[in-house]
Design a protein that fits this description.
The protein is an alpha+beta fold. The protein is built from seven helices and 16 strands. Strands 1-2-3-7-4 form a five-stranded antiparallel sheet, with helices on one face. The two termini are 36 Å apart.
Length: 354
């Protein structure tokens, strides 16, 4: 099964399934001598873990990570960092009803077509539980990046949109409510909406915005490995993501070039930042900002029409423990994937000047 590794120099390979014994990974390319704050890594895992509030899946997992290699006396050694997060609260019986049928808009059908078989317990490898490994690696990447700040937050749930520009928000307030929206009033509305949707056994989508500060000019590779292209690839690899835009994004098409161009200041900074901190695929030293759209979760806790392996129409009653809206728990995942891209780009930028 290809496609389990991410990155060029700072590289993560993950393994494991939602209802297997555990999930883990190997991080290669992390420089030696980096002092790691293991508590900070666990804090990011706690932000992603299930069961943390009433508006997310009630699966109970401690998500405690154990490191097996690559760290000695608190410092990275430069050798591969191996880690494992055990699964402790699987309820595989919740999925026996879909052993021979396919959930619409899920990976059930496509996995069967590609591999000839699938692990139907919680989606197996296609489960969003795989992202726990990304959060571990991303937390290490954040520490490698030093003063680079990566802050993601929920800016939309369904039709509820936080219109306030990020410059006018206190992003630290995102962690003060279960939705992870930095505007307290909007957060309450979003939470109420998610609760309403959950009561009906349905799901709702949303948008996560991310702001990155402190990236120097010069990170990113020309042509195929442009910084924004790699960020887009990273975000689109996250389960349930349907869209990515950076800088002015799709709204930029409404502007003329004379309006959209970011005029320079004498120090090389720009008066506006429609470019989103990236020009020619390379960081220009301004804030990098982007938005990631997440679809409504495909697994519904209600009856729905579908087909079985024989192509026969069947009615299935949804079961199990699932997120009615993924964006609250996806905030640390977005940050982690951004950190992995930037860690890789920072190391590649060093190589380009040798």
């Amino acid at each position: 099964m290809a496609g389990n590794s991410f990155g060029t120099v700072f590289r993560l390979t993950t393994f494991g399934e939602s209802h297997g014994r555990g999930l883990g990974g190997v991080i290669d390319g992390c420089p030696a001598g980096l002092e790691l704050d293991l508590e900070a890594i666990q804090r990011d895992l706690d932000r992603r873990k299930p069961g943390q509030s009433a508006i997310v899946t009630q699966r109970k997992e401690s998500d405690q990570v154990t490191f097996y290699s690559g760290i000695f006396e608190g410092f990275t050694t430069g050798t591969p960092i191996g880690f494992l997060i055990p699964n402790a609260n699987q309820k595989s019986g919740d999925y026996s009803h879909i052993a021979d049928s396919y959930r619409p808009s899920h990976a059930d059908y496509t996995y069967d077509q590609k591999y000839g078989s699938r692990d139907y317990r919680g989606g197996g490898r296609s489960s969003a539980r795989e992202t726990v490994c990304r959060v571990v690696a991303g937390a290490i990447a954040k520490q490698l990046l030093g003063n680079v700040s990566i802050q993601a937050y929920v800016s939309q749930v369904g039709s509820l949109v936080l219109e306030t520009p990020y410059q006018e928000l206190d992003l630290e307030k995102s962690e003060q409510n279960p939705v992870r929206c930095p505007d307290p009033d909007m957060a309450q509305k979003m939470e109420a909406h998610i609760r309403e949707v959950r009561k009906t056994g349905d799901t709702i989508g949303g948008v996560i915005s991310c702001v990155i500060r402190g990236v120097p000019a010069g990170w990113g590779e020309p042509v195929f490995d442009k910084l924004h292209a790699c960020l887009g690839s990273a975000m689109l690899s996250i389960n349930a993501v349907k869209g990515f835009e950076y800088g002015s994004g799709f709204e930029g098409v409404k502007m003329r070039g004379s309006e959209h161009n970011d005029a320079f200041n004498p120090d090389g900074s720009t008066r506006t930042n429609h470019s989103g901190g990236v020009q020619g695929g390379i960081s220009n030293g301004m804030d990098i900002y982007f938005r990631v759209a997440f679809k409504p979760v495909a697994t519904l806790l209600q009856s729905y029409e579908t087909i079985d392996k024989e192509g026969e129409a069947v009615t299935v009653q949804g079961k199990g423990r699932h997120d009615p809206c993924v964006v609250p728990r996806a905030v640390p995942i977005v940050e982690a994937m951004a950190a992995l891209v930037l860690a890789d780009m920072s190391l590649l930028s060093r190589l380009s000047r040798i």
